[in-house]
Design goal:
seven-stranded mixed beta sheet, 5 helices, 7 strands, globular
């Protein structure tokens, strides 16, 4: 984390992020943020004004964007990278599938790739599965799937800064 700022009364985190980054020299950095910050103006600000890149989680607050990503049916393609962690009484598998097929098709500033991240957790004989969608200004030549999985804000939101265990390219 490079900064922290209290949100003003009668406001929210969306403008606070731009305000917080306004005076920071973040050129060449990668800004990760949760779904609340998946906003066109925030993406434009980060890339155009600050000369940085973004990795955002996509959820229902951007319904059309989420619908377009889901329409790619990324679940039907094989993952390109996965990690497996066996610790704390659980087995956790993370898989990533990436696509640049929406580039030039959707209206979201500076996007280069979207991805589907799947997390499967087995604990005490029970299995859970979660999916997260992301969008980024980083193209496949600047960030490999392994790195994109590590940068994923959904992972960061859960305080797991990097996938644990051994990773493998599939």
């Amino acid at each position: 984390m490079i900064a922290q700022e209290a949100v003003k009364e009668k406001s929210n985190e969306i403008p606070a992020l731009r305000s917080m980054l306004k005076d920071k020299d973040i050129e060449g950095c990668i800004i990760t943020a949760d779904a609340m910050h998946t906003q066109k103006e925030t993406a434009r600000f980060i890339v155009q004004d600050k000369k940085a890149d973004y990795v955002f989680t996509v959820k229902d607050n951007q319904k059309n964007l989420l619908m377009n990503i889901k329409a790619l049916d990324l679940e039907s393609i094989p993952p390109v990278y996965e990690t497996v962690d066996n610790a704390h009484g659980r087995i956790e598998i993370r898989r990533i599938r990436c696509s640049s097929e929406l580039q030039g098709y959707i209206d979201f500033p500076f996007h280069k790739q979207v991805a589907l991240i799947e997390r499967i957790v087995e604990r005490n004989g029970r299995t859970s599965r979660e999916l997260a969608y992301i969008i980024t200004s980083l193209d496949k030549y600047r960030v490999c799937p392994e790195r994109l999985l590590k940068l994923n804000p959904w992972t960061l939101d859960n305080r797991e800064w990097f996938p644990l265990g051994q990773g493998r390219h599939l």
